[in-house]
Amino acid sequence: MASIWSHNSLLELSKFIAQKGHKVSFISTTRNIDHLPKIPQHLSSLITLVKHTLPVDDHIPTSTEATMDVKTADIQYLKKAIDGLEPQLTQFLENSSPDWIIYDFFPHLLPPVAGKLGISRAYFSIITSWFIAFGGPSSEAMIDNSDPRKEPEDYTVSPEWVKFSTRVAFQSYEFNWIIEAGKENDSGLSDVKQARLVISGSDVIFVRQCLNLNPNG
Asked: Cβ atoms within 10 A of the Cβ of 82, count?
C-alpha cells in the first residue's frame, strides 16, 4: 500500500499506481480533498481519500489550503500551518503502516517520521530534471550546501558539471528568486533548506517529465 501526501499535484500518480492493483491513501487537507475531481469508478475501491484538518494560522484566511489561494509572500504562513499537521500524519502512518509514503516539496517533517516507522520514502519532484541538475553537482552538494557557486553571476552561465553544450542558466533578474528562496521565512526554514531536508530524508526521487518539453527525458 502507498500513502501519498500532496496538494493535489500527485492525484494522477495515485491513479497510475492504483491501475497496477495497489491500494493508495491520498492524504491532503479537507478543502483540497473536496476540490479534487471524482475518482474513476474502476479505481474507487483502490484509492482512499484521507482528509486532515489544517491548523489555523492568523496570517492567512481559514479557507486557505493551497498555494493558489495565497499571494507568493504569504506561502510561508501556509508552510507553517502544514508543519502543524505532523501529529495527524504521524497517527495515520502509525495506524495504516503503508509500504511507501510519496510526497512533494512541502512536508519536510514527513521523511523522519516515516523513517522511524520503517516506511520507504519517495520525493516526487514536480520540477523538471534539468532544473534539479542545475541545482548542484550532486545530491550531496545540494543537501549539505557545498555548491561551488558563491556569486550571483555564477548562476548566469551553464554549470561547470554539465559537460555538454546547453543554454540553461538564469538571467540576472531571475537570480532574485534564488536569493529569496535562500532566506529563512516565518515557517522557520528557507525554501532551499526545506528542499534539502526533503531530499536528504528520501530513499528515492521521482521526477515528473513532460514529453512535449523534454522529449529526450
From this structure: 23
